[in-house]
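Appendix B, Record 12. Input sequence as logged:
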Amino acid sequence: MPRTVVDTPIGPLGLLASDVGLQAVLFDGRRVRPEGSSPVLDEAARQLGAYFDGELVTFELPLDLHGTEFQQRCWLALASVPYGQTVSYGEQARRLALGSDAARAVGAANGRNPLPIVLPCHRVIGADGSLTGFGGGLHVKRFLLEHEGALLPLG
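Logged structural output:
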């Protein structure tokens, strides 16, 4: 499986791809040993660079998602949350026609999102506006939301 590491303002990100599309964005890129090459990886690295440079707001990449049907529905719905905006887990559940009482299930699915940033789970926050769970850590979630203008910078 082709894989590479991309240096970003939040640290090195590991990218894994198949012949079909991007499979994973890993926050701990130091653990990824680059291997092989792929047009998908090259394009993902280019788009991530443009995102962090403030030049890209929507990723357009072929994806190769592996998860339950429910998880994949939740992950793909993340792409509909506009750059610079946030929604609550309950709102994401409502948008999926699940009802707000499915917020925890949606949150659990988001927690297994293999493509953070590309499928922007950082844009989903608690109903009270709090920053909750994020695989890269809450400091990274805050950075991404500040980068997009969805939060005012602290201090």
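The helical segments are 39-52, 69-78, 89-95, 103-110, 138-147.
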